[in-house]
Amino acid sequence: MIMKDRARPGIEKVCDAVLLRLWPDNLVAGKLEERRKQAEAGFRGEERVDSVLAEYRHPGPIRIIPDLRLVCGSRFQLDVLVLTQSWACLLEVKNISGRSVIRDIPPELVRITKDGREEALGSPFAQLDSNLLLFRDWLHERNTPIPVYGAVVFAYPSQIVEAAVAPHPILFPNRISFFLRNLSGRPLLDEHELNELTRQVLASHEPYVQRPLCTMYPQVTKKDIRTGVMCTVCGEFGMRWHNRAWHCRCESISRSAHVKAIGDWFHIFSGGMTNEECRRFLEVEDRHAARRMMKSAGLIENGKGRWKTYHQQ
Length: 313
Ligand SMILES: [Zn+2]
What we know:
Elements: H1 11-21, H2 27-55, E1 62-72, E2 74-84, E3 88-94, E4 99-103, E5 108-112, E6 118-122, H3 124-141, E7 148-154, E8 160-163, E9 170-171, H4 176-181, H5 191-204, H6 213-216, E10 240-242, E11 245-247, E12 253-254, H7 257-268, H8 275-282, H9 287-296, E13 300-302, E14 309-311
Parallel strand pairs: 3-7, 4-8, 7-9
Antiparallel strand pairs: 1-2, 2-3, 4-5, 5-6, 10-11, 11-12, 13-14
The structure holds zinc ion.
The site of zinc ion has 7 residues, from loops.
């Protein structure tokens, strides 16, 4: 039984907002495009594993929880947690194109692209070791003495993986059922306790809050980012506000085109938006209109007078 939905990676929205607004040939654009591609591939791989698990039939009750963020001393993120009455199992999911070589010293996964370029990524074994340690501690804090297993899953059989030493199983999706079936053991929890543990896991989940661009790429400043409101019909920036509506050169009219632009601002910049900053970014002169726009975009006021800032809820 799958217990919750998997959220799309928040970085996608940041990349989409920023890539439309960066001036052409900005150096960060290529990095963001690459990052978006990786996030999309990672998400697709995780969905592939979810769909295999949705079909899996376990001899006893089973709870499958995708995309979890828990805290035990430090925060940790689990791609998939599987709970039964006898054990817990963490699946670390990878979807990396090209050939992957997992090295032990230093612990890293080297991705070798079709044109022979090498790119070092974090080792999935080291990641799984850390998650196993933290989740065992998390269970210990809750007096739940069940064994915790783990495996690294490569989401597509077309991926080529080499590992000199494999401290944890490496699986492709068609082997997941077999692997889980073989994690035997007598039941240590009754079904009520399993449900209670699942409830505690779900209640402890902290959804990921996506950071804005400027905290990830401090080299991007205001002058790198195009201002203005984009027309959703023709895709051009530079809609003009008059008679309580946005007007585009293509003659389309919108009453709410600022909402997307204000959302873009929060994907790019951190902190609160001031009235002056709102006017600069939306290219409007009327401070009362700017205030109404921020309110209609659902922002909440903080502070008084000229120090007033507006924030997302
Ligand atoms: Zn237009």
